[in-house]
Amino acid sequence: MPFINSKVSVKITEEQETELKSRLGQAISIIPGKSESWLMTGFEDNYHLYFKGDNSEPTAFVEVSVYGNPDPDGFSKLTAEISKIFGEVLGIAANRIYVKYSATTDWGWNGSNF
Questions:
Q1: Nearest 5°: phi and psi at 93?
Q2: Is residue 6 a contact partner of residue 62, using CB atoms and an 8 Å limit?
């Protein structure tokens, strides 16, 4: 039950959104036990982001929420892949991307909790 939500300072076209969704769907499997079949994604474009007090370059804030225990090694590998994906698809440099991870044992779906 992963969720990847992104806020980016650039406009995302429909084609770019589809590519981001697909590539994030493949990338989530870097974390053991996670797959696209349970992945939810969200995209907020044209978001007002300032990094180091500056908003003149494309910037992204990506949140990855997962059900279960944290996987620091998987998270580290996923950060590299997320940076690559957002760089290739949206032209956002890795040094302008923050990735935040949250792991929880409390997750609800279909009217109940796991």
A1: -70, 145
A2: yes
